Amino acid sequence: xxxxxxxxxxxxxxxxxxxxxxxxxxxxxxxxxxxxxxxxxxxxxxxxxxxxxxxxxxxxxxxxxxxxxxxxxxxxxxxxxxxxxxxxxxxxxxxxxxxxxxxxxxxxxxxxxxxxxxxxxxxxxxxxxxxxxxxxxxxxxxxxxxxxxxxxxxxxxxxxxxxxxxxxxxxxxxxxxxxxxxxxxxxxxxxxxxxxxxxxxxxxxxxxxxxxxxxxxxxxxxxxxxxxxxxxxxxxxxxxxxxxxxxxxxxxxxxxxxxxxxxxxxx
Length: 267
Prior knowledge:
It is globular and about 55 Å long. The protein folds into two domains: 2-100 and 216-264, Periplasmic binding protein-like II (D-Maltodextrin-Binding Protein, domain 2, 3-Layer(aba) Sandwich); 103-213, Periplasmic binding protein-like II (D-Maltodextrin-Binding Protein, domain 2, 3-Layer(aba) Sandwich), CATH 3.40.190. The protein is an alpha/beta fold. Helix content is 42%, strand content 24%. The protein is built from eleven helices and twelve strands.
């Protein structure tokens, strides 16, 4: 009887403690979540700071809009030009680099576009532009979609010329990969999400390693001068934690298939 009462008391205490925990709304990219890193990192952050992180998982474009509208207290995204713009317009206080991983091109195992042995990324995309094969695009103005657009521009090619074989899906990274698997198509993905993705179908990494595939993630606190309700003090604590030695160890120790998939580079 006493044991049952004790357990009941502890459960009530946990509920009260959770309800009293200070809350912070953080918009993060779907790749940060789909890669599994959020599950590896956020519980430690919440425990150490005794706060409740409410994650809003969206593409970078949507995360930035949420920040501009004051719907979140901070954002963790990966599109440097957009990040610099939101700082320039005053909606974010600053941009703090935290970590990076890399993009890869996924494609069918038989590699019909013959990109696997391309000398560089631009050659790989030129081969894709000429191949009679499907290419799936995130199509959601996420960091990954912006990177894809950037690469097509570098080879002066409009991917819509591919016609119906260019499949723009307007979706998160994980869902976009599922569509690429269904169509046996090529797709640009961050490597961490791909390695953590269960439904790989007939797809493999067909190209990686180019410097242009560097994928930097940054933390941006929303400016209290623009939105007075944002939790700026708590956000400052989060940023300090994200650049700490503990965060460095956790980020660098996140392993998928025996591979380190993120590298801490905060200064």
